[in-house]
Design a protein that fits this description.
The complex is a heterodimer of chains A (about 350) and B (about 475). Chain A has about 350 residues and is of the alpha+beta class. Chain A has two domains: about 180 residues, Uridine Diphospho-n-acetylenolpyruvylglucosamine Reductase, domain 3; about 140 residues, 2-Layer Sandwich (Alpha-Beta Plaits). Chain A is about 30% helix and about 25% strand. In chain A, a hairpin with a 4-residue loop joins strand 3 and strand 4. In chain B, a hairpin with a 4-residue loop joins strand 5 and strand 6. The chains are: A alpha+beta (about 350), B alpha+beta (about 475). The structure holds flavin-adenine dinucleotide (FAD). Flavin-adenine dinucleotide binds next to strand 3, helix 5 and strand 10 of chain B.
C-alpha cells in the first residue's frame, strides 16, 4: 500500500458523522474482527492511512501511521536486527499496527519484556470532537500530561481513531533456544513460578497439558549457561512452536467450542473447570476451551485475582465478551468515553454494551 | 470556606494528633523538594486508615475544599505544594508492607512505604523492585506512582508504570477503585496508566501492588572518562547501536564530577570533561560478554580511560557519586534549580552545546547529570536566591532549556512531573485541543476540580497569558482567547 496521510479525509468523515449522529465502526485490516463485541455503525476504513514516518535504529523508536501493515513494521525492524518486544499476534496477514495497539494484544514474550502498552511512547489521534491531537512523543521518558497514549492502547477504538503511533523497539537477542520438559500440570506450574524468581533469560513459556516449553533469549553465553541449569531437551523448531501458539494455530486452538482467555495471578493452582487448558506467561495467561457457563469461568478468574475474556465465540452477537466491570469502574469508563467521544461515534458497543 | 467547620468535622474523622492547624505545625509542609515555591495549607491531616481517607475526601467534596496529597515531599516540581485554602493530606502513616508474594513476584504495599524499603523487605526472597529514583531512601511509592518516577535502572527495567500491577485509589467523592489486578492485564481501559503520573490530580492512591524482579546474578559497572562531552554523547548511541541495553547508562559533566568527588570521594577522574557510568547485569556469562563489548565500544568512541569496578565496593562507590550528585552540587552553590527535559538521544551534542551557551549568556553555571541512555537530562542551574533577580533569571533560563527540549522533539519533563513548576511550559508542548482533552479526563474523575488544583495542566487562560510572551513555531498560540 502506498504510504499516505489521509487524516484530513478521516477528519471530514468524523465531522460528518458527528453532525448526522451516525456511529462509525473503525476498520484496519479486519484481522481481529472476531475479537470483542460487534461495533454499531458504518465502517470507516483507516488502512490507507499508512506508512512508516520515521525509524531510527539508534534511538530505538519507530513511528508509523496506524494503517501500516504490521508485517512491514516487523520486517523493517528485522532488517536492522531489532524487533517489537511484545511479539504481537497477527491472526491474519492483513493485521495493521493500529488494530494491534487498539487491542493491546501481546504474544509469548509479554511476561518477560512487557505488553504492547509498555512500548507505546506516543500517538496522534482523531477524537470524537473531530480534533487531531497528539500525546507523548518519541522519547523514552515523558510525564508531561496524562498518559493518553497508554489509555488509547487497548481501548478497542472506543475513544478515538489512532492516526500515528510511536513505539519503543529493542535489539533482537543474539541467541535463542527452546527447551522442553515433560511435567504434569501442578509440577509444570510450580516450575514456572520457581523459574520466575531466578534471573534466567526466559522469553516465553507454554504448558500444553503434557509438555512444558521454555524459550531462552540472550547472549550466547547466557543461553548456554541457563540451558544447563534448567535442563530438558532442546527443541529443533524453535520459531515454529511460538509462532503457532502466538497465532493460535496450535492444535489446541482448533475447536468450535468457545475459547476463553483467563488472565490470573501466576501462582494460581490449576483451575477446576471442565475443558482443555493451555498455559502461557509463567502461568499468568490461561487459555480454556470449554462449554462451561460464563458465570463459572468468570467467577474462577475473579477468585484468582484476574479476569476472563470470551476470546473466540464463533458468534459475533455474543452479549458478554469482556469481564463485567464493577459499577464504580464502569462509571469511570463511561465518563472517559464522554471525555473523548461525547457524541458516542466510535465503535459503540465494541467493548461493553454500555458505551 | 469556614475553617472552624472544616476542623470540627475533620476532628470527628481522625484523632487530634493527626490534625495540624497551628502555623508552626504547618511549616514543615509548606513546600516539597522545590523549595522556591512555598505556601501554608489550611490544615494538615495524617490519616492512617482507608476509611479515614475516604471520609476526609467525602467531607472535602461536600464542602468543596481543595485537597493536596503528599508522600515524602521529595518531589521536584512543586506537585505537593499546599493549597492555601485546602487540606494537605499526608500519606506517611501508611507504612505497612501488606504482603509479599514471591511465587507471583509481587508485593502489596501501602502508599507511604519508602521506595528502598520495598527492595530491602523482599531481598530475602532474592527479589527487588526495579525503579530506583536517586531519592529512594526517602520518597514513597505513592509519590512514585503519582509521578511515574524513574531511576538509573529504568533504561532496561522501565519506569514505575511498567512495574506496578494494581492500585487502590480513592476518588474525591469517596469511591474506592481497584485498578489493575493480580494478572498481567485487566478488563477495560488501562486506568493503571492514566493514574500513573497523574500527580495527585485524579485520586488518592491508598495501596500499590508492585512487580518484583529476581536480583541479577551479577552486576558490574564500567566508568569511562572523556575529554569532550560530545564524544561521551556519541558513545551512548554506539552502545545502543551495538544491541546492548545496559541496566543503567548515566552521564555527568565536569562540574558535576568535581562536586560529587569532593562530596563522597567516589573515585572519579576530576580532570575529565565527562564520565559515563555503564552498568550491565544478568547472568555471569552475559555480564562478562557485555563488559568486553562495552569496553571496546567506549575505547573506540574515544574514551581517555575505561575502568571496570574492581569489586562490589568500588561499584557501590561509583554509583554513590552519581546518586549523591544533586546534594553534591547543592554544596557548591547556595541554590540549584534542577531541570528534567527529555530529548532524542541524537540531539545530545546540540542540546548540551546550546545549554552551555545559555549558561554564558545568563551568567549562571550549569552542572549536567543525567540518564543519558534514555535522553533524560538534569541540568542543574546554580544560583543564589538571596541575590536580587537571580531566581527570576534562573527560571527564565530554565524555561529556555525546556523550550529547547520541545523544539528538538522531546518533552519538558521526563520523570519529575509538571507540578506548579512547568505549568507554563505545558502551553509550549500542548495546544488548546490537547489541553482541553486533559481537562476532560480530569473532570471524568474529579468533576469539581478539587484534587491538587492549579497543578499539572494549565488552564487555557493561563496559557493565553503566558503565550502573549512566547510565539511557538511561528504561531501565536491560543489565538482564540483574548490577550491580557
Ligand atoms: C535528591 C533528589 C533526587 C531525586 N531523584 C529522582 C530520580 O532519580 N528519579 C525521579 O523520578 N525522581 C527523582 N526525584 C524526585 C522525587 O523524589 C520523586 O518525584 C518521588 O516520586 C516523589 O515521591 P514523594 O513521596 O516524595 O512524593 P511527594 O513529593 O510528596 O509528592 C509528589 C506528587 O505526588 C502526589 N502524591 C504523593 N502521594 C500520593 C498518593 N498517595 N496519592 C496520590 N497522589 C500522591 C503529590 O500530590 C505530588 O503531586 C528526586 C528528588 C530529590 C530531592
Amino acid at each position: 500500500m502506498t504510504p499516505q496521510d489521509i487524516s484530513l479525509d478521516l477528519q471530514v468523515r468524523v465531522n460528518h458523522a458527528i453532525e448526522n449522529k451516525t456511529p462509525l465502526s473503525i476498520r484496519g485490516g479486519n484481522s481481529k474482527l472476531f475479537y470483542g463485541r460487534e461495533a454499531v455503525g458504518d465502517a470507516i476504513d483507516i488502512s490507507q492511512n499508512c506508512g512508516i514516518i520515521s525509524y531510527e535504529p539508534t534511538e530505538l523508536v519507530i513511528t508509523a501511521r496506524a494503517g501500516t501493515a504490521l508485517s512491514l513494521i516487523e520486517q523493517t525492524l528485522a532488517d536492522n536486527n531489532q524487533m517489537l518486544p511484545f511479539e504481537p499476534p497477527y491472526y491474519a496477514e492483513t493485521a495493521t499496527l493500529g488494530g494491534t495497539i487498539a487491542c493491546n494484544l501481546s504474544g509469548p514474550r509479554r511476561a518477560y519484556t512487557g505488553a504492547a502498552r509498555d512500548f507505546v511512547l506516543g500517538c496522534k489521534i482523531l477524537n470524537g470532537r473531530g480534533e487531531i491531537i497528539s500525546f507523548g512523543g518519541e522519547v523514552m521518558k515523558n510525564v508531561a500530561g496524562y498518559d493518553v497514549s497508554r489509555l488509547m492502547t487497548g481501548d478497542l477504538g472506543t475513544l478515538g481513531i489512532l492516526l500515528e503511533i510511536s513505539l519503543k523497539v529493542l535489539p533482537r537477542p543474539e541467541a535463542e533456544i527452546t527447551l522442553t520438559l515433560e511435567r504434569d500440570t501442578e509440577k509444570a506450574l510450580a516450575k514456572l513460578n520457581r523459574l520466575a524468581q531466578v534471573d534466567f533469560p526466559l522469553s516465553a513459556s507454554c504448558y500444553d497439558g503434557d509438555r512444558l516449553f521454555l524459550r531462552l533469549s540472550g547472549t550466547e553465553g547466557a543461553v548456554k549457561s541457563s540451558k544447563k541449569a534448567i535442563g530438558g531437551e532442546v527443541v529443533k523448531s524453535n520459531q515454529l512452536i511460538w509462532h503457532k501458539i502466538k497465532e493460535q494455530q496450535h492444535g489446541f486452538f482448533f475447536t468450535k467450542k468457545p475459547l476463553w482467555r483467563l488472565s490470573v495471578a501466576a501462582d494460581t493452582p490449576p483451575i477446576n473447570i471442565d475443558g482443555k487448558w493451555l498455559y502461557e506467561w509463567n502461568g499468568a495467561l490461561r487459555w480454556l476451551v470449554s462449554n462451561a457457563s460464563a458465570e463459572i469461568i468468570r467467577t474462577a478468574a475473579e477468585k484468582a485475582g484476574g479476569h476472563a475474556i470470551r476470546y473466540r465465540h464463533h458468534d459475533q452477537n455474543c452479549a458478554d465478551v469482556f469481564h463485567p466491570l464493577p459499577t464504580n469502574l464502569l462509571g469511570i469508563h463511561q465518563k472517559l468515553k464522554q471525555a473523548f467521544d461525547p457524541h458516542g461515534i466510535f465503535n459503540r458497543g465494541r467493548m461493553y454494551a454500555e458505551f | 470556606m469556614d475553617k472552624i467547620q472544616l476542623l470540627s468535622e475533620l476532628s470527628q474523622i481522625v484523632p487530634s494528633g493527626a490534625l495540624l492547624h497551628q502555623q508552626e505545625d504547618l511549616r514543615p509542609y509548606e513546600c516539597d523538594g522545590l523549595s522556591a515555591y512555598r505556601e501554608l495549607p489550611l490544615v494538615v491531616v495524617l490519616p492512617n486508615t482507608i476509611d479515614q481517607v475516604r471520609a476526609i475526601l467525602q467531607l472535602c467534596y461536600r464542602l468543596e475544599v481543595p485537597v493536596v496529597a503528599r508522600g515524602a515531599g521529595t518531589g521536584l516540581s512543586g506537585g505537593a505544594l499546599p493549597h492555601k485554602n485546602g487540606v494537605l493530606l499526608s500519606l506517611v502513616k501508611f507504612k505497612q508492607i501488606l504482603a509479599i508474594n514471591p511465587q507471583r513476584c509481587t508485593a502489596v504495599v501501602q502508599p507511604g512505604v519508602r521506595n528502598l524499603a520495598i527492595s530491602e523487605a523482599v531481598k530475602p526472597y532474592g527479589l527487588y523492585y526495579a525503579p530506583d529514583p536517586s531519592s529512594q531512601i526517602a520518597c514513597t511509592i505513592g509519590g512514585n506512582v503519582a509521578e511515574n518516577s524513574g531511576g538509573v535502572h529504568c533504561l532496561k527495567y522501565g519506569l514505575t508504570v511498567h512495574n506496578i500491577q494494581q492500585l487502590k485509589v480513592i476518588t474525591i467523592d469517596g469511591e474506592l477503585l481497584t485498578i489493575g489486578g493480580n494478572g498481567l492485564d485487566s478488563a477495560g481501559f488501562d486506568l493503571l496508566a492514566i493514574m500513573t503520573g497523574s500527580e495527585g490530580m485524579l485520586g488518592v492512591i491508598v495501596e500499590v501492588t508492585v512487580k518484583l524482579l529476581p536480583i541479577p546474578d551479577r552486576a558490574q559497572v564500567i566508568l569511562a572518562a572523556f575529554d569532550d562531552i560530545v564524544k561521551a554523547g556519541e558513545a551512548v548511541g554506539n552502545i545502543i547501536s551495538a544491541g546492548i541495553i545496559p541496566a543503567g547508562l548515566e552521564m555527568m559533566d565536569k562540574l558535576a564530577i568535581q562536586a560529587a568527588e569532593d562530596f563522597v570521594h567516589a573515585g572519579y577522574p576530576t580532570d575529565a570533561e565527562a564520565i559515563l557510568l555503564c552498568e550491565v547485569d544478568g547472568s555471569n556469562a552475559e555480564v562478562s560478554e557485555h563488559i568486553l563489548k562495552v569496553r571496546g565500544i567506549l575505547t573506540q568512541s574515544g574514551a581517555t580511560q575505561v575502568r571496570t569496578a574492581k569489586d562490589e565496593a568500588e561499584r557501590m562507590s561509583f554509583w554513590k557519586g552519581r546518586k549523591a550528585a544533586f546534594p553534591a552540587v547543592g554544596r557548591i552553590a547556595p541554590d540549584y534549580y534542577c531541570m528534567d527535559g527529555t530529548i532524542p538521544r541524537k540531539q545530545l551534542p546540540h542540546v548540551l552545546k546550546t545549554i552551555s551557551n545559555l549558561s554564558t549568556e545568563y551568567n549562571l553555571p550549569v552542572a549536567n547529570v543525567f540518564h543519558a541512555g534514555d535522553g533524560n537530562l538534569h541540568p542543574l542551574i546554580l544560583y543564589d536566591a538571596n541575590k536580587r533577580g537571580e531566581l527570576e533569571r534562573t527560571e527564565e533560563f530554565g524555561g529556555k532549556i525546556l523550550q529547547l527540549c520541545v523544539d528538538v522533539g522531546g518533552t519538558i519533563t521526563g520523570e519529575h512531573g509538571v507540578g506548579v513548576e512547568k505549568i507554563n511550559q505545558m502551553c509550549v508542548q500542548f495546544n488548546t485541543e490537547e489541553l482541553t482533552q486533559f481537562h476532560a479526563i480530569k473532570s471524568a474523575f474529579d468533576d469539581k476540580g478539587l484534587l491538587n488544583p492549579g497543578k499539572a495542566v494549565p488552564t487555557l487562560h493561563r496559557c493565553a497569558e503566558f503565550g502573549a510572551m512566547h510565539v511557538h513555531k511561528g504561531k501565536l498560540p491560543f489565538p482564540e482567547l483574548e490577550r491580557f
